[in-house]
Write a structure and sequence with these properties.
Layout lengths: L9 H4 L22 H10 L2 H18 L1 H4 L31 H37 L1 H15 L3 H12 L3 H11 L2 H15 L2 H8 L4 H9 L4 H21 L13 H15 L1
Helix pairs in contact: 3-5, 5-6, 5-8, 5-9, 5-12, 7-8, 10-11, 12-13
Amino acid sequence: MIDQATDPNESQMVQPVYRAPADDSLLGAKDVVRSPAREVLRRFMHHRLAMTGLIVFLIIALMAIFAPVVTQYDPNQIDLRARGQSPSMEHWLGTDRTGRDIFTRTVYAGRVSLLVGVLAVLISVAIAIILGACAGFFGGKTDMIIMRFTDVMMTFPPVVIFVAVAAAAGPGLVNTILVIGLLFWMIPCRLVRAKVLSVRETEYITAAEAVGVPTRRIVALHAIPNVLDVIIVYVTLGIAQAILPQAGLIPGVVSSRRTSKLGQYAQRRAEYQHARI
C-alpha cells in the first residue's frame, strides 16, 4: 500500500478560510448596494444648489398655501384712505391705487399660480405618457397617427385658444387649468416617445415578451418607469411654462378680474415705467 502520510509541515501551509458574516453591518459604506431611487436621493441631498432651490421653493409654496396665516389682510379689500402708500411695517410692499395690500395680493397670486402650474402640468404629463408610450412601443400606424396629431396640435397658437375658450365657456380657474393642460402635452409626448423607442429594444423587454407577459403589463411596469427621468425634468420646467400664460394674459380672459395674478403687477410696473418716460 502507498503510504498516505503527509509532511507535518504541510498542515502549517494550509491557511484557514474566513467566511464573511451575512450581516451587512460590517460592510463599508462603499460596499453597500443602493437602489437607483436611493442613489438619486443621496446625490440630490449632497448637491448644494439643488438643496438651495428646494428650500426656496418650499418657502414660497408654504407661504402660498398658508396665505391666511402669513398675512392678515383681504387681497380684495379696498381702502381708499390707504391707497398709494410706500412700504412700511404695516404694509410690507405698500398698497396699490385702491388701497389693497400688495404683499397680500402677491402671496395669494402665488397660490393661484402654483395651483394652475401644478395641475396643468399633471394633466399634460398624463396625456403625454399615454400617447407617447403607445406611439413609441407599438410603432407603425399607431406611431404615425399619434405623431401627426401631435404636429397638428403644435400649429395652434395658445393665446388664440385661450381667448376662444374664454369666449365660449367664460373665464374661470378650472377652464384655465384645462386649457393649459390640454395645450402643453405635445413636447413631453415627443420626449416620452423617443425614450420608449430606446427602451423598446432592450433585452429585458424582449425577455418579457418571450415569456408571454401581457403587453399592457410590459408598458406599465417596464417601459413607463424608465421614462421618469425625462418626466421629472419636464415637470420642473413645465410648471413655470404653465404659470406664464395664466400670469401674463390680461385679467378676464382666462380668469376672473378679481383673481389676484402675478402678471397684473408686471403689467402695471411696465405702464408706470412707460408713464415716467
